[in-house]
Structures are given as C-alpha cells and as structure tokens.
Design a protein that fits this description.
202 residues, five-stranded antiparallel beta sheet, three-stranded mixed beta sheet, globular
C-alpha cells in the first residue's frame, strides 16, 4: 500500500513539474538591443548595439516579464548583455513557476540601468531603459525549453524582428531611447497631478 501511495505521489509531483512552462530567454541578430540616444560619455555607441560595459560605467540588465495575460506579467528571469556579442542576451533556460507549458503566454523584454530594480524606476531616475513589444509564446513542456524568439516549432513566438538596420544583416528590436531628465519627469508628474485635481473639482 505504501509503495502504491509513493508511486502515486511521485507521478503527481512529476506531472506538476512537467506542466510548468520551460523557457529559453534569448534574442538573435534580428532582435538586438541598440541605442537611439546616449549619455555624453557613451556617445560613441549612438545608433549602435549595446555593449556589456559602457564608458559611463553603467551596466544594463535585461528582464523578461511574462504572464497569462498582458496585465498579469511578472518578472521571470534577469540576465545581462552578452559580453561577446553586443546587443544580445542569453541563452538562459529556466522553468517558470507560474506559466504552464504548451499554453500561449504574454512576454516583454525590459532593459534597465542595473542601479535601479525596474525599468520604470530607471526611467524616473533619468537613466537608460528599453522595452520590446509585448508578444506571445508557448513555453515548452517535458524537456523542451522553447525560445522566446522562435516563431516556429511549438514555441510559435510572435516577437517580430527589428526594423532598425544595424548593417551586416543585423537589426535592432529593443531601442534605448532619449533619456528624460529627472527634473523634466518631475514637472510632468506635477502637471499630471494638477490636471487630475482640477478635473475632479469640475
């Protein structure tokens, strides 16, 4: 009897493990991270692929967010820009704790200054941030780690190749845009608050 119960428990645990989605966090030469604006110290990389180490001393982190809906995306994994291949990251394979395998899920890549815990806070701090489009992909099951950039196989990723031509058949898909100054963001924040205040009074 104990043997049967043990076997049943093992099957249940194994089934649960296999049900969790298996993901390969990686990009490629048509989905690179690139600069559309830089700090003065990093001006040499304007319009270029993002390197692992910047002259300004800033290190960029790459976060993968995922969820069963666009509004429920949570942080899945974090990595850095590949030192050997500028603009690229991964491959990082992992098993998601909250996304099932073989079911479409929503994903987004967010790039940020490592001095800030999220891209949103990096933006408020006036530092580097970048976002991919929100796309869908089916995490793998069993031993298959489906790549977030693979439109074929069982992954069926909808992450589109980039359109910014970096030359040599390489394209940028995640742009690091113009960096707003913290003072400008503060002014925008105050303006938005005032707008909401007067709107409510009406």
């Amino acid at each position: 009897m104990k043997t049967k119960l043990f076997a049943l428990a093992f099957i249940c645990v194994s089934t649960g493990a296999f049900a969790q989605g298996k993901i390969n966090m990686v990009n490629d030469s048509t989905r690179l991270v690139y600069f559309a604006a830089t700090l003065p110290a990093d001006a040499a990389f304007y319009g270029q692929k993002v390197p692992a180490v910047l002259p300004s001393g800033i290190t960029l982190m790459v976060d993968l967010y995922g969820g069963t809906t666009q509004d429920s995306m949570t942080l899945q994994r974090t990595t850095v820009i590949n030192p050997a291949i500028p603009g690229s990251f991964g491959p990082i394979t992992f098993t998601s704790v909250n996304l099932p395998g073989d079911v479409d899920a929503f994903f987004q890549i967010q790039v940020r200054d490592s001095a800030y815990p999220t891209a949103q806070l990096a933006m408020l701090g006036g530092s580097y941030i970048g976002f991919s489009q929100i796309f869908t992909m089916r995490p793998g099951t069993s031993i298959a780690f489906n790549a977030i950039n693979n439109p074929g196989g069982t992954a069926l990723s909808t992450w589109q190749p980039g359109t910014y031509d970096l030359g040599g058949g390489e394209f940028g898909a995640i742009v690091i845009p113009l960096i707003p100054e913290p003072s400008s963001l503060a002014i925008l924040g105050v303006g938005a608050a005032c707008f909401q205040f007067f709107r409510r009074r009406r």
